[in-house]
Amino acid sequence: MARPHSLRLTVAALVLLGVAVAILASLGRWQLHRADERRATLAAIEAGRARAPVRLAGDTPVGELAAWRPAQARGTWLPGLNVLLENRNQGGRPGYWLATPLLLEPASRRAVLVLRGWLPRPLDGSPPVLPATPAGVQQVAGELATRVPRLFELWSFGQPRAALPAALPADGLTPAVQNLDLDAYAQATGLALLPAVLMQTRGDDALVRDWPQPSTDYDKNLGYAMQWFSFAAIAAIAWLVVAVRAWRRAGRPARRSQS
Length: 259
Hints:
Elements: H1 4-50, E1 54-56, E2 70-77, E3 83-85, E4 95-105, E5 110-120, E6 137-145, E7 176-177, H2 182-189, E8 192-200, H3 218-258
Helix pairs in contact: 1-3
């Protein structure tokens, strides 16, 4: 007959191995789900960039403002409504994105917010020097985004995040915020903004226009999924080995008693 402590250890091992199988298999399924998400993101990017460029106007239908679609806009810059988006790194260097509205229709105050490019943060902590903004009607080309790309906001109780002024233009320096909501910006400026953002891809200034895009390397997730499923298979084999050995040990006393 199996000793009591041996039986308890066997049951504990079977329970732990069973839990390990369930957890490892669920991690594999999660990686497959992440791979599907990244595959869908890649398809959306390719589909958007494959569409014909759209010319932005005050009456452009929302259905035409697909993310990653090439777009062109003709209007007048409003540099007095500039906003800097801080903590945007480029090539390992800290800096800002410069956002400026382009006025499409003066009468209706219809405009589109343009992410014009990246500029470095001065090492001495002083405000960045913004590039000159061309006057007059300008032609701007870029790709569309449904909103300003966001960063995770981390701050302590003693260091609250910078907030967008209630009304723009504001006296003094160009406001710098970590994230910019289109509705809040429209309320602060009084502009009727298109429900999209234009990420400028060409320009005659020194701004860097190497815009980030979501990770689409779904093959990496598939590789991770195979690893987790392999670990789950190993744990399942171990469970079977422990169970078979326990069954054989339980059968030995019965055979001995019969003899």
